[in-house]
Amino acid sequence: MHQRLISSADGIQNGRKARFSGCGSPVRFMNHPAPANSRYKPTCYEHAANCYTHAFLIVPAIVGSALLHRLSDDRWEKITAWIYGMGLCALFIVSTVFHIVSWKKSHLRTMEHCFHMCDRMMIYVFIAASYAPWLNLRELGPLASHMRWFIWLMAAGGTVYVFLYHEKYKIVELFFYLAMGFSPALVVTSMSNTEGLEEVAWGGLIYCLGVVFFKSDGVIPFAHAIWHVFVATAAAVHYYAIWKYLYRSPADIIRHL
């Protein structure tokens, strides 16, 4: 009898542990922080939020990219619109696919790991693509013009780093993201035409504030989904600046005065 009671108690306790990260658990909104150099395991509610916060932005990103391409006056503007648009759309698509795989196909460890690497690599590509319109379409000095290709060299280096050291040195990876985000800003602010740079700065500030949530999984409920919202907001601010100051025609501006 005593042995049965012990077995029954163990079963209840194990059942509670199994439901810890489930949707019916009292702690369904957040799990414990991940150990060092390990990935956080979201609850099912967090998984859903991670998917939807970027999935809803795929169509607007495609439409916005097509608009910039249509507003282009020459071949170089069209190429730049294509580069920026591909980076913007790919960021949200790859992020959404990864979070769906992580949520629904987490047992396929190799596939999940591959998509997680792609998700991290896309951050480097997106940073480079976000600066492309300003570096390509604004007049730069002889030294500053080298940033047009150097930023893509940094993006390539970042993708190689993710391939070799994914999830091993998280602080180093975060430093690379921030360094790549700030380095071109030093060149952009030296332009003779500074229209739109205030919006670029505000977008950068929003990204930086979002990093707090990017590093707060297991500390703040839905931290990663909140990070997605910061990314979407900053990307919208940057898109508005690119549309208004680099692609919107003078006739449109006069018409709306």
TrEMBL record:
Name of the featured protein: Monocyte to macrophage differentiation associated
Residues annotated for Zn(2+) binding in this entry: 99, 224, 228
Gene: MMD
GO function term, MF aspect, one: pore-forming activity
Protein location: Endomembrane system
Lineage, top ranks: Eukaryota, Metazoa, Chordata, Craniata, Vertebrata
Provenance organism: Gallus gallus
Primary location group: membrane
Keyword Transmembrane helix applies: yes
Membrane topology type: Multi-pass membrane protein
